[in-house]
Amino acid sequence: MKPKIYIDGREGTTGLQIYERLGGRDDLELLLIDEDKRKDTEERRRFLNAADIVFLCLPDAAARDAVSLIENETTRVIDASTAHRTEPDWDYGFAELSKAHRAAIAASKRVANPGCHASGFISSVYPLVAREVVPADFAFTCSSLTGYSGGGKKMIAEYEDENRDPRHASERIYGLNLQHKHLPEMEYVCGLTQPPVFVPVVGDFYKGMATTVMLPSVDARRVQEALEAHYEGQRLVTVAPFGGDEPVIYANALAGKDSLRLIVCGHARQAIVTALFDNLGKGASGAAVQNMNIMLGLDEATGLTV
Ligand SMILES: NC(=O)C1=CN([C@@H]2O[C@H](COP(=O)(O)OP(=O)(O)OC[C@H]3O[C@@H](n4cnc5c(N)ncnc54)[C@H](OP(=O)(O)O)[C@@H]3O)[C@@H](O)[C@H]2O)C=CC1
Ligand SMILES: CC(=O)N[C@@H](CCC(=O)OP(=O)(O)O)C(=O)O
């Protein structure tokens, strides 16, 4: 019997990208809701309970409602929203962080898929804190550049409108209240004693992401060696040689891929780590499909672009 998969929110940016990654697979059965019933609570309840694995690609409140519609013990959930990422009875869906994370995902009924900016920060910082290269009470700062698809359908329409605000041609700094919605998961997953100072920036390009963590008074080579050791043998998270692959970093360099690459630059007294990936790949839909593959005991990269 093929596992039955339902994508709640399939018409959205993340949902469509998951559908594209699963559409051509013959090892899964996709349960497809009628277009005119996709927001009908009773019909969704039926689909949510008929599936073995459900992807939630919905706003936070709708994701919480969807979970409450599940009335059986067997349906397993991968939630792409922010709703459950710091809940102790959910597993955080970033398998490369540790063997324990991977094992928890494999056995989980409830997986919270990481936020895009959070994926960049956590992939850099979790190993450095776990390996005591940087203390958990370090005053982390981070800047993260993302394509506008990170803002979903509404932001895509805003950027692609022919009469758009001409200021969209320039980068836009946001999250200025320093309370971005990904801060709680960054702090929780890395075990930090304080949140980082986090500056997200959206640019005039569709997809791609470069999240840079600043590490004053830290030896850059030690950082690179720790990250390389931590991710040894991983296929979807890799570490560049010290100094990086190129003299400059373009935020869209890994657009279209489901992998993430860490690049360490600096010298003996200062380091920066940049996580380069696609906000819709390892930052959302690619990660969600990877988590599903792990939950089903399949090769984690099935259907993904490494
Ligand atoms: N875009 C990205 O890079 C990332 C997004 N995410 C998260 O994934 C989730 C989805 O985001 P994204 O795909 O960008 O958002 P979109 O706005 O592109 O899509 C959301 C979809 O959910 C549908 N929807 C809204 N409310 C309901 C409801 N009550 N019942 C059924 N369907 C509903 C919308 O319908 P309609 O089409 O009618 O508007 C839309 O199709 C969010 O929680 C987001 O924060 C996570 C990581 C990255
Ligand atoms: C450009 C833009 O607005 N990006 C979104 C992040 C998208 C994302 O990862 O959202 P989730 O937390 O729901 O997963 C933001 O910064 O709020």
TrEMBL record:
Gene Ontology MF, one: N-acetyl-gamma-glutamyl-phosphate reductase activity
Pfam families for this protein: Semialdhyde_dh, Semialdhyde_dhC_1
All copies of domain Semialdehyde dehydrogenase NAD-binding, residue ranges: 4-105
Cellular localization per UniProt: Cytoplasm
Gene3D superfamilies referenced in this protein's UniProt entry, alphabetically: Dihydrodipicolinate Reductase, domain 2, NAD(P)-binding Rossmann-like Domain
Active site (catalytic residues): C116
GO annotations of cellular component type: cytoplasm
InterPro entries cross-referenced by the UniProt entry: AGPR, AGPR_dimerisation_dom, AGPR_type-2, NAD(P)-bd_dom_sf, Semialdehyde_DH_NAD-bd
Keywords: Amino-acid biosynthesis, Arginine biosynthesis, Cytoplasm, NADP, Oxidoreductase
EC nos: 1.2.1.38
Reactions mediated catalytically: N-acetyl-L-glutamate 5-semialdehyde + phosphate + NADP(+) = N-acetyl-L-glutamyl 5-phosphate + NADPH + H(+)
Pathway: Amino-acid biosynthesis; L-arginine biosynthesis; N(2)-acetyl-L-ornithine from L-glutamate: step 3/4
Family from the record: Belongs to the NAGSA dehydrogenase family. Type 2 subfamily.
Task of the protein: Catalyzes the NADPH-dependent reduction of N-acetyl-5-glutamyl phosphate to yield N-acetyl-L-glutamate 5-semialdehyde.
The protein's name in its UniProt record: N-acetyl-gamma-glutamyl-phosphate reductase
Phylogenetic lineage: Bacteria, Bacillati, Bacillota, Clostridia, Eubacteriales
